[in-house]
Amino acid sequence: MLKLVVLISGTGSNLRALLESLDQHSALDQHSTPINARVVAIGADTEQANLALADEFGIPSFVIKPRDYENRAEWGDALLDRIQSYEPDLTVLSGFMRLVPPRVVDVLSPELLNTHPAFLPEFPGAHAVRDALAAGATETGATMMIVDNGVDTGPIIEQHRIPIHPDDTEATLHERIKVVERQLLIDTVRRIADGTINLKEIAA
């Protein structure tokens, strides 16, 4: 069974969707094939993250706060040590709002994934939804990718286009993107677990 550590900074809405799709939880859709994966830990960089999800689903959790360390590299080493203590097959950044340091990427990638609310390489960075609206784009998207040491420059696993409506606000557009992001995350975990996605081949 594929073991996942998932890192969050906020509400964890994408993570909740994943948890509800995994065979470890009673909310599994009985009409779908169980996903041969489980989340073994949920981590965060802030105590404001929704780690109540971990309690709700009976999953261990941890917080590694950057301010507790002398520099970003030391924080990254502590984060990496905690992730590795759970021996995951896959680490997923799900609304994790910090760039992980190079050593974390070098050790964990290509089994280090992230979702992004744009059709990369369009609109990289932390304000992708706002940037798409500011650019007057008529469509944007959602992307599932392998994390590298750039800013949203890693190998793309899958992505989908999403139209931008004339009356969209940042909030309404982001909510529609999240629906697609959640499905991308679930489908990607399913396909990695059943062997139809080979991350090393994608990263090569």
Q: Your description of this structure?
A:
The protein has helices at about 15-20, 50-55, 70-85, 100-110, 130-135, 170-195, 200-204, and strands at about 1-10, 35-45, 60-65, 90-95, 110-115, 140-145, 155-165. With about 200 residues, it is of the alpha/beta class. The chain folds into two domains: about 1-110, 3-Layer(aba) Sandwich (Rossmann fold); about 115-204, Formyl transferase, N-terminal domain (Rossmann fold, 3-Layer(aba) Sandwich). It has a seven-stranded mixed β-sheet with strand order 3-2-1-4-5-6-7. β2, α2 (about 50-55) and β3 form a beta-alpha-beta unit. The longest helix has 24 residues, at about 170-195. The protein is globular.
Nutshell version of this structure?
It holds the Pfam family Formyl_trans_N. With 204 residues, this protein is of the alpha/beta class.
Tell me the layout of helices and strands.
Layout: E1 2-8, H1 13-21, E2 37-44, H2 52-57, E3 61-63, H3 72-85, E4 90-93, H4 102-108, E5 112-116, H5 128-134, E6 139-146, E7 156-163, H6 170-193, H7 199-203
Parallel strand pairs: 1-2, 1-4, 2-3, 4-5
Antiparallel strand pairs: 5-6, 6-7
Helix pairs in contact: 1-6, 3-4
